[in-house]
Specification:
Elements: H1 5-11, E1 20-23, E2 26-29, E3 32-38, E4 45-49, E5 55-59, E6 62-68, E7 70-73, E8 75-80, E9 86-89, E10 91-93, E11 96-99, E12 102-104, E13 107-109, E14 121-125, E15 131-133, E16 136-138, E17 147-149, E18 162-164, E19 167-168, E20 182-184, E21 197-199, E22 202-204, E23 211-216, E24 221-223, E25 226-228, E26 232-238, E27 243-245, E28 248-250, E29 257-262, E30 268-270, E31 273-275, E32 286-289, E33 307-309, E34 312-314, E35 318-323, E36 336-339, E37 342-354, E38 361-364, E39 366-373, E40 380-382, E41 387-389, E42 395-397, E43 438-441, E44 444-445, H2 447-454, E45 460-463, E46 467-470, E47 474-476, E48 479-484, E49 493-496, E50 500-504, E51 509-513, E52 516-518, E53 529-533, E54 542-547, E55 550-554, E56 561-564, E57 571-577, E58 580-584, E59 589-591, E60 603-609, E61 612-616, E62 621-624, E63 636-640, E64 643-647, E65 659-662, E66 666-670, E67 673-675, E68 680-684, E69 690-694, E70 697-699, E71 705-708
Parallel strand pairs: 1-4, 2-5, 3-6, 4-7, 5-8, 6-9, 6-11, 7-12, 8-13, 9-14, 12-15, 13-16, 14-17, 15-18, 16-19, 17-20, 18-21, 19-22, 20-23, 21-24, 22-25, 23-26, 24-27, 25-28, 26-29, 27-30, 28-31, 29-32, 30-33, 31-34, 32-35, 33-36, 34-37, 35-37, 36-38, 37-39, 39-40, 43-45, 44-46, 45-48, ...
Antiparallel strand pairs: 10-11, 41-42
Bound molecules: calcium ion.
């Protein structure tokens, strides 16, 4: 039993097979553990918590394993981050790997470097014959794969690792490449074999980026895993001879949920169940890619000799063949088979899209029912298929004659409770706004400030009619609502004397409703804002909602924005509904601080509807996402049913636009009136951006400009 780092150092010298080192319950801080020794089969050397879940390791801590037959169990890493590249590493240094070792019943919870784009990894597996099982990994929010298997030396290849029964909990949208949950291999060593088994793991809302799992090596098996409402796909990015079987993907209609993306040689995809997936393009339910002829190792290898059989595809939106076909990716799938699959759509249409020649795929015995667009190929039978739900909650055809079509009836749906650890709670659905108490506030000087200091997570601050003056910046580290009390007429009006009224700090989100905000008392200096983010990197993604509000007179000096953000911050959602913005010298919404052209951006969903923007010096929306990276889904922008009058004409508005969207992936600009304004400018870059501009009126405003500014 050890109670200090000193005791740990003494105890871990000369460990013998069968020895145990027990960490005493309590808080351990800035504790870098090296655990090495040589156990024997059946006689491991153990590092464990006195009580599982009661040993909390925080600050700048990590764990490195080296040797043979080591076992680590019961620890919780949270409230800190690793000072090195990994939280848990199955090696001490390049030549000191761990083999035959097991890490089980460990929790890593939001153990993030505070700098959002400082890259690190929670678990790195090296060596051979290791097992990582029944662990709980939740809330990786900075850049870097949550868990990776490395093959960078002979001692780590053909490793036969097992990764099983882990709970991979929610991973928020990163807004950049590097948000994968699991990666096996790297492109450099992708033609070597890993032989890793990934079995019975639960991937719950793993939304970091386009790849939930990035497979980059050979002979791996992915079996029996569940992917719940996770944006992205299991991607066979590099490496050959992989098997993907008996996995269950449940999208439940959540945007950008996907299934399996197939690239490379001799891949087998069978007995999987994929349902309610909405993703398109590289993020579809099933995506068979085109390759690059004589591809370099890090590009796309042709699909060859692959088999896709007995998969059930129920109520998904997109299946794609020869996806990514372009001048470079011209090598179509060859010698591959697609057979005995069941494709049923009852609630949403399914598009099977063929992007190039698919003569190299032989189709046989596939059964299709419902609203499905079929490719021009034999091997699909259209018929009625009645489904019944089995005891696992999965649907199968009633008709016995279809028993050999789609995923087998015996397919099990792994339960969430069977994964991770029993003694640590799994997260529920995110509740945030309006989940707490209500504080009723009277007008006056800093009455709002006082309420702000008292209001807790999810609380609502209600303002009676009258004038409110705020003399300090109101910082939020929790979701709060500020709204007019019921029947408050006229609108409660807030004025503020500092350079910002609200500042979103780590964990903060803000909802404004029914109020008026007037900038007339703000300092006579440039660069004020109503809402700003922390000036520093933020890990948590914030939300900003504005409904039925008035924002007036942000014009005490130039460049006065409604929302001003700093780089390395990320809005999950910004929404403005039914509101009036008038007399503003800067931008209304500016999400344009990532200027490095690395594919990083500042916000995912930006929606402005039913609002009026009048006499705005800058843009109503200014968004910049630069670079050619293809691993993210956003930003998404919708501007609808709104009036823009005299917008964008201040000479400091560098892009000379009323709305400026650079690198947005989905833009819908519909049924707006642009009057006496600068034009709408859209610069499309990488991917296949979807831009819809319709039913708008342009009065004394130049026509919109849509250009292609990206390079591949
Ligand atoms: Ca990626």
């Amino acid at each position: 039993m050890v109670r200090s780092e000193q005791e740990f150092l003494l105890a871990t010298k000369g460990l013998q097979p069968g020895d145990s080192v027990i960490l005493a319950n309590g808080q351990w801080r800035d504790f870098e553990m090296v655990f090495s020794g040589r156990g024997r089969p059946g006689q491991p050397i153990t590092l464990r918590a006195e009580t599982p879940g009661k040993v909390l390791i925080g600050g700048k801590s990590n764990l490195r394993l080296a040797g043979e037959y080591l076992l680590v169990t019961g620890l919780v890493f949270r409230d800190g981050h690793t000072p090195t590249n990994e939280v848990i590493s199955f090696r001490r240094g390049r030549d000191q790997l761990a083999n035959h070792s097991r890490v089980t019943n460990i929790v890593i919870d939001h153990y993030n470097n505070p700098e959002r784009y400082e890259r690190d990894f929670w678990v790195m597996m090296y060596g051979k014959n290791n097992r990582f099982d029944h662990n709980h990994l939740e809330g990786k929010s900075n850049a870097g794969v949550t868990m990776a298997v490395r093959l960078d030396s002979q001692g780590s290849r053909n490793n036969r690792h097992r990764i099983d029964h882990n709970y991979f909990g929610p991973r928020p949208i990163l807004g950049a490449n590097g948000g994968e949950t699991l990666r096996i291999g790297t492109s450099k060593y992708s033609l070597t074999e890993s032989e890793t088994l990934v079995e019975n793991n639960y991937f719950d809302r793993c939304n970091g980026e386009l790849e939930i799992i990035s497979n980059k090596s050979g002979k791996n098996v992915f079996r029996g895993n569940v992917f719940l409402e996770s944006r992205g796909t299991l991607t066979l990015r590099h490496g050959n001879d992989n098997l993907v079987e008996a996995n269950v993907f449940l999208g439940n209609g959540v945007e950008h949920t996907g299934g399996i993306r197939v690239i490379n040689k001799r891949q087998v995809i069978r007995n999987n169940y994929l349902s309610g997936l909405t993703g398109h393009r590289f993020g579809g339910a099933l995506v068979i890619m085109n390759g690059v002829p004589d591809s370099p190792i890090n590009r796309y290898h042709q699909v060859e000799d692959s088999l896709i059989e007995n998969n059930s595809l129920i109520d998904n939106e997109h299946i794609e063949f020869a996806a990514g076909s372009d001048e470079e990716r011209s090598a179509v799938p060859i010698r591959s088979t697609f057979r005995n699959n069941l494709i049923v759509n009852s609630s949403r249409p399914n598009l099977i899209t063929v992007h190039d020649e698919i003569k190299g795929v032989s189709f046989a015995n596939n059964v299709v029912a419902g609203d499905v667009t079929l490719p021009d190929a034999l091997g699909f039978e259209r018929r009625q298929v009645a489904l019944e739900k089995n005891e696992n909650g999965l649907f199968h055809p009633l008709d016995e004659s279809l028993a050999k079509i789609g995923a087998p009836r015996s397919l099990k749906l792994l339960e969430r409770a069977q994964t991770g650890v029993s003694w640590y709670p799994k997260p529920g659905s995110a509740s945030s706004f309006d989940s707490g108490a209500t504080w009723l506030v009277d007008p006056g000087r800093d009455t709002l400030t006082g309420a702000f200091e008292k209001a807790a997570y999810g609380d609502i601050i209600e303002l009676r009619p009258g004038d409110y003056t705020v003399t300090r910046i109101l910082s939020l580290d929790r979701p709060l609502t500020v709204r007019a009390a019921a029947n408050a007429q006229p609108r409660p009006r807030i004025q503020f004397e500092r350079s910002a009224l609200f500042e979103l700090a780590e964990g903060g989100s803000l909802k404004l409703a029914g109020i008026a905000i007037d900038g007339s008392l703000a300092p006579d200096a440039s660069g004020n804002s109503v809402v700003r983010t922390s000036r520093y990197s933020m890990l948590s993604n914030y939300e900003l909602e504005v409904a039925n509000a008035e924002v007036l007179n942000l014009d005490t000096n130039h460049s006065f924005n409604f929302l001003r953000v700093s780089s390395h911050t990320f809005a999950q959602k910004v929404s403005i509904r039914g509101s009036l913005f008038r007399n503003i010298s800067g931008h209304v919404i500016a999400l344009d601080r990532e200027i490095d052209d690395l594919g990083i951006y500042n916000g995912e969903y930006i929606t402005l509807t039913g609002s009026t923007f009048e006499n705005i010096g800058g843009a109503v929306i200014s968004i910049y996402r630069g670079g050619t990276d293809e691993s993210t889904f956003g930003p998404h922008v919708r501007l609808q049913d709104s009036i823009l009058k005299t917008v964008g004409k201040n000479r400091r508005n560098r892009n000379s636009s009323a709305v400026f969207l650079h690198g947005v992936q989905q833009a819908e600009i519909r049924a707006n009136l642009f009057s006496d304004s600068q034009p709408l400018r859209i610069v499309e870059t990488v991917g296949e951006p979807i831009t819809v501009i319709r039913e708008n009126q342009w009065v004394a405003t130049p026509p919109p400009s849509v250009t292609t500014g990206g390079v591949r």
